Amino acid sequence: MASKRKNLSFAEKNELIEKFQNSNLSKAAFAKANSIPRTTFNIILAAKLCSSNAQIFDQERKRQRLSPYENVDKALLSWIKHARSQNAPISWNVLKEKSLEFANELGESSFVASNGWLQRFNSSHNLSFTKLCGEAADFDSSSLKEWKDVVLRDILERYESANFFNVDECGLFYRILPDRTLCFKGEKCVGGEKSKERLTVLLAANMDGSEKIIPLVIGKFLKPRCMKNCKSLPLFYDANSKACLTADIWEKTLRRWDLNFSKQRRKVALIADNCTAHCTVDGLKSIELVFLPPNSTCVLQPLDQFIIQNFKATYRKLLLQDMISAIDRKEQLQVSVSNAIFYIDQSWNMVSQKTIANCFRHAGFHSSPESEELLEDDDEDLPLTE
């Protein structure tokens, strides 16, 4: 019976080569002494698999398979080494985007930065990712149904979709970079402390997605040094010690919106959740403020049906793109409040009308059975998780 064939790893082959070089035996004698077929040993020696190759490729692998996009691989590996020398964090998305950039420069038009390609690339080059050193509470379903059947239906009958708005705020760690980075196995990773710099962003949009109100950003300092020479901002800015929405800021914002709608001679409905900062505001002429039932925002709040998630994902993508550019320039990306404001403005503008309209439908805000059916046809347009 023939003996079972054994495949040697790169590490085992290199060990054999070193052992042979330190011996006084001939090839035939060495192969026989180590129970290796003579032909196999000659192939190992001819391949010249020295220890440097074993460091590039996973030492446990049995074969070296070359990538069809070897030039892209080489360029990307060189860039990774350069980025890691700066302790720059490299996420999965950063790696994909940079590989596409190299493929375009090298004329590899058929290259696709698929998950499978990236997994093979990481495996081939001994890379791995390593960690750097409420509203979903239970709600009364009967109260929810009553609110939709009575309150929501009444509002939908009295207001056109263009005059039906939802408002919500979200926290944004505006300097946040990837908390996982690509590194060579065994490499110590530093510089991954999560940013504690937080802003609050107040967003509002109408039901058909045709109008997005200019965001309000709330920081910790009313006049941060980074804004000293900034003559104008693309959005509104306010501040308090906790960088959070307060009842005073809420009232001031609603009165400003009310004045703008009055100038346009419009009457609008504004849906908000019932958090403590969202107080009732007396004397509004053009805005009818309507509150959602308690603990229902995860189901009923349109902005929570992926609109805010889409906005944050876009913000993060813009930040990552600039981070890559900074790495290429051998610089470190510095994100100030003023920089973040322009990222926020651009990210909000990039949330599409179709995404917003679909999220309103997904939350049950539709005035007819026909508009409800559109959600089923356009599910693919809903933003995905990051």
Automatic annotation (TrEMBL):
GO cellular component terms given for this protein: nucleus
Keyword tags: DNA-binding
Domain HTH CENPB-type: 60-131
Primary localization class, coarse: nucleus
Protein name per Swiss-Prot or TrEMBL: Tigger transposable element-derived protein 4
MF terms in GO: DNA binding
Gene3D superfamilies xref list: Homeodomain-like, Ribonuclease H-like superfamily/Ribonuclease H
Top-level taxon in the UniProt lineage: Eukaryota
InterPro entries xref list: CenT-Element_Derived, DDE_SF_endonuclease_dom, Homeodomain-like_sf, HTH_CenpB_DNA-bd_dom, RNaseH_sf
Compartment(s) of residence: Nucleus
Phylogenetic classification of the source organism: Eukaryota, Metazoa, Ecdysozoa, Arthropoda, Chelicerata
